[in-house]
Amino acid sequence: MTKLVTGVIQPHRLDDVKSALEAAGVRGMTVSEASGYGRQRGHTEVYRGAEYTVDLVPKVRIEVLVADEDTATVTAVLIKAAQTGKIGDGKVWVVPVEDVARVRTGEHGVDAL
Amino acid sequence: MDFALDTGNTAWMLTASALVLLMTPGLAFFYGGMVRGKSVLNMMMMSFGAMGVVGLIWVLWGYSATFGSDIGGFIGNPLDYFGLDGMTDDQSLMAAAGVPALVAVAFQATFAIITIALISGAIADRTKFSAWLIFAGIWVTIVYMPVAHWVWGGGLLGAEGITVDMGLSVPIDFAGGTVVHINAGIAGLALALILGKRKGFGKEPMRPHNLPFVMLGAALLWFGWFGFNAGSEFAADGVAGRAWLNTLIATCAAMLTWLLTERLRDGKATSLGAASGVVGGLVAITPAAAAVDTFGAIAIGAIAGSLCALAVGLKYRFGYDDSLDVVGVHLVGGLTGTILIGLFATDKNSTWYPEGAMNGLFYGGGLTQLATQVIAAVVVVVFSFIVTYVIGAILQATIGMRVSDGDEVGGIDLAQHGETAYEALGARVTMTEVKA
């Protein structure tokens, strides 16, 4: 069976995360631009004394399909590479995937990864 | 009076005139960057529009109504040099420096243009372009020309004016603290009150859409301002050097104190603060450019930078939408420089002020010059506010000065000019007609 690991991370950590995942044996991923906020509620900007809150800040969403037994490793690698220790580092979550198919060959399940 | 051409001075004044003219497109960038992306073109067009209208009016009757023969201390005779017809060089405002009459007309034209353009920042995002052009023509004629005549054309704030009649001294306004900045600042307030607030003022975000534009504008303004202040000497000499140098150092000081004020109050030193501090310092040193020494210039700049940084918040407290802080920067900066002359004016170290003016309080002159400066400032504030308010009210009641709510919310660029500055995300454009 397979799992979908999704991370929403700081855009400037993407290169490191990508290399770390490749080194850990991950052979494919989907990356998209995202925006959002977490507990830190974005940031504030001040223009001539008028304060604005920018509460949707740019993030990168990275999605990786993995075999069940690799889930813990991949999650740990992703977190380690994305972490700066500051607020706004993002989230990683894992959800079960009922089926995966490779479009070119029609293979299913772990074979399709 | 015989006229002897001085080519050196004339070359400098031709150059200075071009420098000052560049300030208005510079202002277009300074203001344009500060508005939202949907109204940047209209904001810039208000500056360019002022160039068109005022440039023509100036050579028809403007110069004459400012520097023509005095009518009751109030205004010059607009018919003396109407269309510049029959002007001779011995009648030049700058004849004593050997600068021909038409060069004097050119230099003064650029001052009238930028003064009106400055007002536009107070009424950003919501003013009908046609109403603005009409306002510019009326305002330059019945507000700018009288005030410039009072101060520089031998009128009621000059050598034979009201402060002298009161037993005080001659006001010092070297390059336009009263004529340009207090005048434009208070006029901006009057118009902002007539037009009312932008939709969503104080609630919806109206952050500057392009801070690099603002920085570029501040840079062009500073560059052109050397022509404004050092050119106001009408000659290439040591006093021009003093004015030039004060235009540098007061501005440096003002930028730093604006940044310091922000850092202490808001936590960060911002690029908008640097650009604003530059302009605040330039405004404040303008009337004092030749009349204070190095320490006076530093003090005026430092005080103005901090005061203006605090003053830009007043519009939220009092609830008027002076959109780009024409009051906070030009009125407050202009008042600061004009009044501080009363403390810092000096006749030492290559400085200059008109005969009949005096040293300031800190330079052994007592309180006389300070009182003179305050009176000159108050007279301009009262006159400009009342007349501008009346012009605005009449235009508002007749042709209407403000665009519709829908046009304002949808973007004044598209509504008034049929253009947009930037491509909208996801928009698809097809060419439908070519007029050939």
From TrEMBL, chain A:
<dbReference type="GO" id="GO:0030234">
    <property type="term" value="F:enzyme regulator activity"/>
</dbReference>
<keyword id="KW-0804">Transcription</keyword>
<feature type="modified residue" description="O-UMP-tyrosine">
    <location>
        <position position="52"/>
    </location>
</feature>
<dbReference type="GO" id="GO:0006808">
    <property type="term" value="P:regulation of nitrogen utilization"/>
</dbReference>
<dbReference type="InterPro" id="IPR017918">
    <property type="entry name" value="N-reg_PII_CS"/>
</dbReference>
<dbReference type="InterPro" id="IPR002187">
    <property type="entry name" value="N-reg_PII"/>
</dbReference>
<keyword id="KW-0805">Transcription regulation</keyword>
<dbReference type="GO" id="GO:0005829">
    <property type="term" value="C:cytosol"/>
</dbReference>
<dbReference type="InterPro" id="IPR015867">
    <property type="entry name" value="N-reg_PII/ATP_PRibTrfase_C"/>
</dbReference>
<comment type="subunit">
    <text>Homotrimer.</text>
</comment>
<dbReference type="Pfam" id="PF00543">
    <property type="entry name" value="P-II"/>
</dbReference>
<protein>
    <recommendedName>
        <fullName>Nitrogen regulatory protein P-II</fullName>
    </recommendedName>
</protein>
<dbReference type="InterPro" id="IPR011322">
    <property type="entry name" value="N-reg_PII-like_a/b"/>
</dbReference>
<keyword id="KW-0547">Nucleotide-binding</keyword>
<dbReference type="InterPro" id="IPR002332">
    <property type="entry name" value="N-reg_PII_urydylation_site"/>
</dbReference>
<keyword id="KW-0597">Phosphoprotein</keyword>
<comment type="similarity">
    <text>Belongs to the P(II) protein family.</text>
</comment>
<dbReference type="GO" id="GO:0005524">
    <property type="term" value="F:ATP binding"/>
</dbReference>
TrEMBL record, chain B:
<comment type="subunit">
    <text>Homotrimer.</text>
</comment>
<feature type="transmembrane region" description="Helical">
    <location>
        <begin position="172"/>
        <end position="196"/>
    </location>
</feature>
<comment type="function">
    <text>Involved in the uptake of ammonium/ammonia (NH(4)(+)/NH(3)).</text>
</comment>
<dbReference type="InterPro" id="IPR018047">
    <property type="entry name" value="Ammonium_transpt_CS"/>
</dbReference>
<dbReference type="GO" id="GO:0008519">
    <property type="term" value="F:ammonium channel activity"/>
</dbReference>
<feature type="transmembrane region" description="Helical">
    <location>
        <begin position="40"/>
        <end position="61"/>
    </location>
</feature>
<feature type="transmembrane region" description="Helical">
    <location>
        <begin position="131"/>
        <end position="152"/>
    </location>
</feature>
<keyword id="KW-1003">Cell membrane</keyword>
<feature type="domain" description="Ammonium transporter AmtB-like">
    <location>
        <begin position="11"/>
        <end position="422"/>
    </location>
</feature>
<dbReference type="InterPro" id="IPR024041">
    <property type="entry name" value="NH4_transpt_AmtB-like_dom"/>
</dbReference>
<feature type="transmembrane region" description="Helical">
    <location>
        <begin position="12"/>
        <end position="33"/>
    </location>
</feature>
<keyword id="KW-0472">Membrane</keyword>
<feature type="transmembrane region" description="Helical">
    <location>
        <begin position="295"/>
        <end position="314"/>
    </location>
</feature>
<feature type="transmembrane region" description="Helical">
    <location>
        <begin position="208"/>
        <end position="228"/>
    </location>
</feature>
<feature type="transmembrane region" description="Helical">
    <location>
        <begin position="326"/>
        <end position="345"/>
    </location>
</feature>
<keyword id="KW-1133">Transmembrane helix</keyword>
<dbReference type="Pfam" id="PF00909">
    <property type="entry name" value="Ammonium_transp"/>
</dbReference>
<feature type="transmembrane region" description="Helical">
    <location>
        <begin position="272"/>
        <end position="289"/>
    </location>
</feature>
<dbReference type="GO" id="GO:0005886">
    <property type="term" value="C:plasma membrane"/>
</dbReference>
<comment type="similarity">
    <text>Belongs to the ammonia transporter channel (TC 1.A.11.2) family.</text>
</comment>
<feature type="transmembrane region" description="Helical">
    <location>
        <begin position="93"/>
        <end position="119"/>
    </location>
</feature>
<keyword id="KW-0812">Transmembrane</keyword>
